[in-house]
Backbone:
């Protein structure tokens, strides 16, 4: 429902959950040379409990790259969105903000909410 969608996108608890997932994604496989695309596939499996289709990973990778570019061009927006305490060591505000967008998308998928 529209009310449910607004709650899932804006409720402080859901923002905190998305931030936690974003932190996990930003640091997962950092020392192993994991790519952003591999992190997105990992995130998809965490949230939906199935392997993502290539088209799903492609779309989320494109979103991540677009958001990263936006936040790199507007670092003050990234810093406003992600507080310093929410940024893991070695991860910039722009990357964390981009991961937050991906996390928010994944957590708001109908498939995530209903778990089939």
Residues:
């Amino acid at each position: 429902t529209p009310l449910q969608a607004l709650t899932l996108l804006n409720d402080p608890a859901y923002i905190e959950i998305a931030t936690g997932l974003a932190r996990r994604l930003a640091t997962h496989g950092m020392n192993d040379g994991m790519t952003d695309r591999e992190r997105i596939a990992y995130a998809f499996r965490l949230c939906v409990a199935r392997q993502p289709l290539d088209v799903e990973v492609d779309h989320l990778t494109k979103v991540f790259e677009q958001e990263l570019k936006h936040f790199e061009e507007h670092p003050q927006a990234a810093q406003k969105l992600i507080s310093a305490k929410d940024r893991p060591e070695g991860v910039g505000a722009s990357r964390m903000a981009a991961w937050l967008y991906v996390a928010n998308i994944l957590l708001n998928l109908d498939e995530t909410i209903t778990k089939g």
Q: What stands out?
A: The radius of gyration is 14 Å. Residues 54-73 form the longest helix (20 residues).
